[in-house]
Amino acid sequence: MSAPMTQIILTDTGLSVPLAAGETYFNYCWLRDVCPSCIDPQTRERIFDVASLPSLPRARQAHIEGDVLVVDWQSEAQVSRIPLALLESFATRGRAEDPADLPRNLWYADRGASFLRVPQQAVLTDPAARAQLTRALIEDGIAIVTGMDGGKDSLPRLVEAIGPITPSAEGLFFDVRVEIAPTNLAFTAGPLEMHTDLPGEEAAPGVQFLHCLENSVEGGLSLFLDGAAVAEALRQEDPAAFHLLANNKIPFFYRHDNWDYRAHQRVIETDPEGRVTGVTISQHLQDAMDLPQTLLDDYYPAFVKFLKMMQEERFLVRFRSEAGNCVIFDNHRIVHGREGYVADSGKRHLRGCYTDRGALRSTHRVLAYQGFDGRIAPEPDLQRA
Ligand SMILES: [Fe+2]
């Protein structure tokens, strides 16, 4: 390797390394902490405590050797060999590589119902198909599993291929059908306005499964939209309204005889980089707003504007839930609803449950490490064929 490429500048607090991304500074504590020797190969947990050193770590000498940065420390008999790939990742992305950190594909009405469809049997037995499903759920936030077998274990077997079932006040599962004494508007035949589920829970469920067991009623089309797409449209059209919804929390509840959940949520959820990661919306589970009344003078018009946008046809996809299908969607991003139906025109029964977003991403990462990244090969170029 040529001399300039290995020139490392040591300072009192850290060092600068020439990387493909350019010369990049790394703090000594951080470098000592990411030394691969800090991780126990058996448990894969951290076995080094930076606070156990008599003084903050400081390099005596450092150089590049092949694809690692070798750091010789001043106050301990320890040499760290840190992969340059890790340093490059932090230099370019600010964080470690993550196969589950995939950009969201925002979608609109013209997407139709062309979401990924994959048979249940493939999800359960073929890691390539399972990876396609987890990738679609991260990128599109929605996918449809077809050919669900009708047994009682059918839904739990599918969920557990993605992650453990997370319970809600209703238990591990809930049934969406007409009930005599409903605990939720979903359990009636009326229309169900666009919403995300259970915002009254401190951590609302992340991924929702709706397995259609039977559907022979007139009407009752399922409605879906990409809340992140609507939020981004609001950001374009009215940045001040977007800012209000992304930076203030409003109260939600879920209340019945034996429970009284309450939580505050941001209607538009963003990550530290300001990217929209989801939305929380549910007028039937929204509590009396408790923002200052004068702030509400600005908040309500923004909120109403966002609710009205969610009714615009440009965002809405509607399709009929077919018996044997299971729709899976990101409950923090995909807003769903239902048109009303004629209760005595037939039977409509959906069974649902949840897992969380962390479990979904975990499954996707493990599949990626096994060589299944879920990418679907592009269609052959017909013009060239
Ligand atoms: Fe729902």
TrEMBL record:
Keyword field: Dioxygenase, Iron, Metal-binding, Oxidoreductase
Residues that span the membrane, as ranges: none
Classification via Pfam families: TauD
Cofactor(s) needed: Fe(2+)
InterPro entries membership: AlphaKG_dependent_hydroxylases (IPR050411), GBBH-like_N_sf (IPR038492), TauD-like_sf (IPR042098), TauD/TfdA-like (IPR003819)
CDD domains (UniProt xref): CAS_like
GO biological-process terms attached to the record: carnitine biosynthetic process
GO molecular function, one term: metal ion binding
Every TauD/TfdA-like domain range: 122-354
Family the UniProt entry places it in: Belongs to the gamma-BBH/TMLD family.
Protein name, as recorded: Gamma-butyrobetaine,2-oxoglutarate dioxygenase
Species of origin: Pseudooceanicola lipolyticus
